[in-house]
Write a structure and sequence with these properties.
394 residues; 5-stranded parallel beta sheet; single chain; 16 helices
């Protein structure tokens, strides 16, 4: 495996605890490569193959009888009913780490797993490569940051030294043609493709269904359905609002982010990392990259994301709220490398406001592209290279 994955330790641990291990995540995020590398003795079965899928669907008991000693079942969302029959097998013989299943459809697969394999499966989510996994040590300069945003984290792009324009155009087309076409209530694929690009133009913004639907020429209901489709297939994720009791005048709709910034850049028509310097979304894309790094750090440890944003109706905002370990971690994200006195003003405001409802202590952080670490006016400075410090917090 060319890129050592941080999640490996957690995968090995769950394989000692459960008879079935489940790995979900976007297409081409490295699920198959990881499963084959960590479980080389298990036969690999791709349920993308039409012949194999037909066999598994028509006679699942006979199909599974060929793999009584275990297997890797890839893209199992294509045959979700197979999980019910797999349940019977692991109940009769609960040997640990015998089966590995992978899937790239979040909600539908999770529902079948909850129904059929609850208590029998250890679940993990594998996202594209993190900056740490890419050994991208120098991301302090503006140029390197833009390169990281533009390239994204899909392993094949880096392994084959592909240009992002070469990789993502095919990725988008394959996603729409293969995954979306199979789903109900999608309608015109051209309109869905336009909708996908409109979502990219709203990175870091609070979701406005009416505006999005109007620009796409669809109904509000359809816009909500299509956002669910994009979320289910690991293209976008909503960052929910954190609205505990200390203020009622809060924005409660989620913000929109992409699971990969390279994919977002492609949808935005950005043709090089240099173009990011003058792009209207460069701040939102940097914010997306940093939030993704925190999310990947948590998921690679098998932990829930538990991340949010906070904004009130007077314009005060915290880019990232991490709620874990009995502490609220309030994180301001800035792409600038030079520390400015007003960078921490929203954190100061949030900390003062939270004192009125002292349910949990608050720690403030400034995540930025500068080099200075330490404390600044009671806020911890986090250069990008020290981002692990944040998601290693308990």
């Amino acid at each position: 495996m060319l890129y050592p994955r941080v999640i490996t330790e957690r995968v090995n641990r769950l394989a000692q605890l459960y008879p079935v291990l489940g790995i979900t995540g976007p297409r081409q995020s490295g699920k198959t490569t990881l499963a084959k590398f960590l479980f080389p003795n298990l036969p690999y079965v791709s349920l993308e193959n039409l012949d194999i899928r037909l066999e598994a669907t028509e006679d699942p008991r006979a199909f599974l009888a060929k793999y009584v000693n275990g297997a890797i079942f890839d893209e199992v969302q294509n045959t979700p009913d197979l999980l019910s029959y797999l349940q019977q097998i692991v109940d009769d013989d609960p040997r640990k780490g015998r089966y590995v299943i992978t899937g790239s459809q979040n909600f539908a697969l999770s529902a079948h797993i909850a129904q059929s394999l609850s208590g029998r499966i250890g679940m993990l989510t594998l996202l594209p490569l993190s900056l740490k996994e890419l050994n991208w040590r120098d991301v302090s300069s503006k140029e390197e940051i833009h390169k990281a945003i533009y390239a994204g984290g899909y392993p094949r792009l880096h392994h084959d030294k592909m240009q992002p324009s070469e990789f993502y155009s095919g990725y988008i087309q394959t996603y729409i043609e293969r995954d979306v076409r199979q789903l109900k209530n999608i309608g015109d694929l051209g309109s869905f493709g336009k909708f996908l690009k409109l979502c990219a133009g709203r990175i870091g913004q609070v979701v406005n269904f009416s505006s999005l639907a109007l620009d796409a020429g669809i109904s509000n209901t359809t816009a909500k359905q299509w956002l669910t489709v994009l979320e289910a297939s690991y293209i976008i994720f909503p960052l929910q609002s954190y609205y505990k009791n200390f203020s009622k005048r809060l924005i409660k709709m989620p913000k929109l982010y992409f699971y990969d910034t390279g994919l977002a850049c492609s949808l935005l028509g950005i043709g090089s990392s240099e173009q990011l310097d003058s792009h209207y979304l460069k701040g939102g894309l940097f914010e997306n990259l940093m939030i993704l790094e925190v999310l990947k750090g948590r998921m690679n440890k098998g932990l829930p994301g538990d991340i949010y944003f906070w904004r009130d109706q007077t314009g005060h905002e915290i880019d990232l709220i991490c709620a874990w370990g009995g502490v609220i971690h309030a994180v301001e994200i800035k792409s600038g490398a030079t520390l400015q006195s007003d960078y921490t003003k929203n954190i100061d405001y949030f900390i003062e406001l939270s004192k009125k409802v002292p349910e949990e202590p608050v720690r403030g952080y400034l995540l930025y592209s500068g080099a200075q670490a330490g404390m600044f006016r009671g806020v911890e400075l986090l250069p990008i290279q020290k981002i692990d410090r944040l998601f290693d917090e308990k």
